[in-house]
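Each field is listed here:
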Amino acid sequence: MNQNQPQLPKGICVLETQVAGHLFTNNTAALGMLKDETIGCVLKPFGKPECGARELSFYESLQNTNDPQLKKLQNFIPKFYKKIRLEVNGKDHTFFQLEDLTHGMQQPCIMDIKVGKRTWDPLASPHKCKVEEEKYARCKQVLGICLPGFQVYTENGYKKFDRDYGKKLDAEGLGEALRLFLNAQEMLCEALIEELLRQLYDIRAWFREQKHFHFYASSLLIAYDYVALQKRLQNEKCTACQKSKQQQQHYIPNGNGLHICEVVDNLDDVDSCYPTSPTHKAIPSFENESLNTCRCLERYVKVKMIDFAHVFPSANNSLDMNYLFGLESLIAILEAMLK
């Protein structure tokens, strides 16, 4: 038996698709993510008592809310089922039982993107603030996002990249990492990019209105099924991919012998009072245009907000500009791929 494998209850296993956060190691005190194979959900360790209590309070507040804006937020996060106790390595531990966002995916490509220039919460000590500020500084301070880890399947096999890879990235390198993750280094699958943008636009629209919370050290989890996506595009012609007469179209190969429709429109820059990345200003936004998104891809592509141990009530009833800055940067990078 692998010495890194913990002693777990029957039906519970290590979540092999975990790409960021604490992992199981030889140090049995370290807890990683688990998976309940019997019901298809993931189990996230409670963590430090104050952090776990804060995250539990966040989930429960959404379950019990009648606020329409908070109800909308439920669409952007994994389903929370309950808090459970499990015996791991002979000791009782508390876990969050959550929706498995990759359930049913044959070859899940998964990326964890931490959002925000500032990743320390209002209760952090000066030392913690300094440590967090120095992490991933080369891209985080420029783009407001950083890359703790990802895994990707390609026609050449499977690759996994951890935090050490992410810490070496500058702003340009993060863009290249996204292209690698999206199998877009040589050719581009536009339908995939457009579906990601559609979901990110929905999240951004919520953040442009909500003044309930500020999210620190929270991430966006992006997942898509490489096998299912390619089969869907290759074998079925979806009417949602058809063009209107007003749109000029041509076709580009996506690197796997397939052809995806590309819409070419004259788009004007969208003025905004919201924070933007340095590269965002010259890039037109597709949000108010008709994205040529085949909605049949939705089941194979997921963008969800995760990690809520450092969510705090909004200060002075204000927008979360820290999160919005990073979100705008990510959207700008993806929009640039469509140009």
Notes: Residues 12-234+294-336 form a domain with the D-amino Acid Aminotransferase; Chain A, domain 1 fold (CATH 3.30.470.160).
